Amino acid sequence: MKPSIQKLQKIFKLEADRGYDNHAVMGGLSRILDVWMNEARADGLPEDLIQLVSERIQDYGRLTEKSRAEMLQGLWRRLQRGNGDELVQESAEQLQPTAETGAPSGITAPEDMLPFEEEQEIFQPERAESTPTTPAPQAAPTAQAVVQETVQPPPPVEPKALNAPLTAVRGIGERLAANLSRLGLHYLRDLLYYFPRRYDDYSRLKPINRLSYGEEVTVIGTVQNISTRPVRSGKLKITEAIVSDGSGSLRVTWFNQDYIARRLHPGMQISLAGKVSQYLGRAVMDNPSWEPLEQEPLVTGRIVPVYSLTEGIRQKWLRTQIHKVVSYWGPRIPDYLPEEIRRSAGLVNLPTAILQAHFPDSWESLQAAQQRLAFDEIFLLHLGALGQKRAWKERAARAFSAESEWLEAQKQRLPFPLTGAQHRVITEIQQDLLSGKPMNRLIQGDVGSGKTAVAAIAIAIIAHHGAQAALMAPTSILAEQHYKTLLSLLTASDKQLDEEHPVSSAPPPLRPDEICLLIGATPEGEKQRIRAALAAGTIKCVVGTHALIEDPVEFADLQLAIIDEQHRFGVEQRAALRAKGDNPHLLVMTATPIPRSLALTIYGDLDLSVIDEMPPGRRPVSTFVLTPRERERAYTLIRNQVAQGRQAFIIYPLIEGNDNNDAKAAVDEHAMLQKEIFPDLNVGLLHGRMRPDEKDAVMEDFRQGKYHILVSTTVIEVGVDVPNASVILIEGANRFGLAQLHQLRGRVGRGAEQSYCLLIPDHPDAAENERLQVMASTNDGFVLAEKDLQQRGPGQFFGVRQSGYAEMQFANLTDIRLVEKACRFAQLLFDQDPNLTRPEHQLLAFALQQSWGGGKGDIS
User: Fold this and answer.
1) Which domain holds residue 482?
2) Once rounded to an integer, what is the mean pLDDT over residues 311-327?
3) Global pTM?
4) Residue 55 in domain
5) pLDDT in the model for residue 793
6) 75 in a domain, yes or no?
7) In a domain, 606, yes or no
């Protein structure tokens, strides 16, 4: 029996066993035609017989079941007569259904049509299930009503076949599976959720005589002729075809795809999709996608998905594999989102969203699918964050009280009056420490808003009860600065106590010997002394870097862990500091303002305090964007400020230059500035490759005024406090994000004098860069954070914040309406079933576990 006939026999037999439901082949019998017609021609079947099979099967889906049975039986008899003894002589009666209902009687569909080969009841097509469509609009219940509905019966379980390896898909062997694994595709489920990176719109059909150069279109026409010829001594083969649609002709060219000449024939109607170009004044298409007109189009005449690829994987092949899987398994995916929430939120169901996200029928259906999937990402993220917050709050922690008179006396000891925002945040911390539950609070405040003073009061409360506190900073420079600040705020010498504090006044919470600094550069002997004192409990507050967790540091009674610039630490590092105590209170701080949408989602497990008021007397930094040709103006301003006794920073994006990057580098420019631009001034150099003791020495010399100008990389981005610095010049400013530029700008403006921030991009046209102009227009860190989120996405905030949560593909966290809606529904559901133990929430519990990758995220 010829292979092409044997294939039809198997398909027809399976279709009969299924009751002629047009599901023996995924997508219907007509889907086999393109492959089968080429195989039939290769087998030498008569062309009229091939065309007959094509015409009959093309109409199969429009027939009734009775007519389908008659048509297949008649077509089989015609095939028997078509080529005499060379065809098998089975009678038409063999196409009748078997007595065993629903069983394929040992005959399976051809291996390139049915995608799976294991566990027949799971991997072979089931009875017809209609593809879900977007539900008609309904009257949506209120959000409050969603969680008050009666309990529904348990939903269907998710097919276990989704956990099958990709080698279970027909056509994917070990080699292709290994290639797909580089894309993160290992299991059947992964293909369902491997969404396109973009879409090409080939749905716009145009006649050939109306094509315009440069546009991407779909053309339908008839092949007039086709040929292949070698060029470049046979190293390259060009396949050329002339396609006509009655209005004109189009020359089509494919390079090194000579197999196309064996598949296309004169008189064959095809659809072409691609970009129109020009050759000798005529319209041409190079390497377009094509399909026979009879086939249900995957590429032509529609919005086409484009997937990310890797070596050994071609776009058309991957698109076909995903289409097979999505078409079959997409409708079989149960929707984990409770029906009441889905209807109230106005979302399409999950099967529809998956199908339309891969192969959209229209831009509107794609938007609806993306809206659903974006909602799910935010919903699951917030649901997980709520679970983390609840787990944290279920722990017990020591309660610390602060008498009103004592606390007020400590506030009065500070060398400056607190702002209203600082008073408010201190009250929130005071309530947390008194609650008996571990504090888990994030303080966000703009540069210079006074977060350290608030942290100092929290340390004072802990030390007042004899317990210990630790503050971990990301750099030794910042740690040393915090140490000096806390030393001045929390301690006093014996002389100061005698002169400034009468007996009736509250003494400072710490003695100078009860606070210490522990960094990598701390001498080993001093480290040993500090470790011993911490273990004995005689040191009440330690400020340090990673040395706090990398060294064998033990605390006698750690009750407060403070982490500054928390986004610079990994999950494990923050957890390691917490583990030094028994459920210590946790306070994390950031000078990077967090947009409201991120505060609701990524930081949803934290109690959030905002210091949104600057201390009185702080003058906004004047910011200007200059072109590279205006650099001398910047140097002139620096000279004038130095002449008035001020200092300046000059920041570069690189430490050293290289041939592959045209950005200016600190080491190279430092030598030039000292020799050519400021020969009469002292210019210092600071960068990340210097040893910690070298960096500390340079920074201290700059603070002491030994350097007029400090050339640096972004190592000074966070926390460096030099009140005498009044100018910061940032070279290559277009290379930095808004949040980073704002942090750098915060290094000046810390004194009473007017300060300046000058931004110079690499190229003149970059001076009009929107980000740089935004910097010049506002000093509000929250405005800049929102802009940064819009322009660069949440990556800088997300980072390792929630270590287990999968990266978002659809959610735009600048869409505050969607964020608020998803978070609201997550909160409502969580209030009713926090552990997702109800039967109707079992699928949702599984989805939550999948989305977080089995991780617990970061509860700090």
Assistant:
1) 404-435+450-590
2) 90
3) 0.63
4) yes
5) 62
6) yes
7) no
